[in-house]
Amino acid sequence: MIELPPPQAVEVIEHQVVKRWCPCCGAWRSPQLDLKGRVFGQGRIGVRIAALVVYLRTKLRLPIRQIREYLRTLHTLELSIGELVELTHTVRRALQPEMDTLLREVQASAVAHGDETGWRENGQNGYVWG
C-alpha cells in the first residue's frame, strides 16, 4: 500500500531576544539574531515555505489564489495575496546573484541548449524560451 502522510501543520517558532542594561559600558545590549538560511531578510516566512510557494508558482504555474488556498487547506497557514506576491519577489531578489552567475556561465560556454515551450492563453499562442 502506498499512502501519503497526513498534511503537516505549520510550525511557528518564536524567537525572544533579551535586551539588558550593561553597567560597565552604560548602554543597552542585546545579542544579534542571525537567521540566515532560515528566513529571507527580516521576514517571518521560513525558507521551506518560500521554496514551496515559488515552486508552486513557477514550476507548477499555480495562480496566487490557488497557492493561498493550498496553504490554508493543507497546512492551516493563512497568508494574504500581497504577502505571497512579495515573497516571490523577495526570493527572486535573494537568488538574483546566482542567476547572474548562471547567465554569465551560459554566455561564456561554447554550446548553449535552448527550450521553447508553447501554450495558448485567451486564444493566443504564447511561448517561453529557456
Topology:
Layout: E1 20-22, E2 27-29, H1 47-59, H2 64-75, H3 81-108, E3 116-121, E4 124-129
Helix pairs in contact: 1-3
Structure description:
This protein is of the alpha+beta class and 130 residues long. It has a domain of 56 residues. The model has no long low-confidence stretch (mean pLDDT 89). Strand 1 and strand 2 form a beta hairpin. The protein is built from three helices and four strands, in the order ββαααββ. The two termini are 39 Å apart. The longest helix is centred in the last third of the chain and has 28 residues. Strands 1-2 form a two-stranded antiparallel ribbon. Strands 3-4 form a two-stranded antiparallel sheet. Helix content is 41%, strand content 14%.
Instruction: Going across the biggest sheet, name each strand in turn.
Output: 1-2
Tell me, rounded to a whole number, the average pLDDT. Answer: 89
Number of strands: 4
| Helix count, DSSP H or I runs of 4 or more residues | 3
C-alpha geometry: extended
The level of helicity is: 40-55%
Distance between the termini: 39 Å
| Element pattern in H and E | EEHHHEE
Radius of gyration: 21 Å
> Biggest sheet, in brief?
2 strands, antiparallel
Low-confidence stretches: none
Query: Beta-strand level of the residues, as a percent range?
Result: 5-15%
The class by helix and strand makeup works out as: alpha+beta
Record keyword descriptors for this entry.
130 residues; alpha+beta; two-stranded antiparallel ribbon; extended
Brief sketch in words of this structure:
The chain is an alpha+beta fold and 130 residues long.
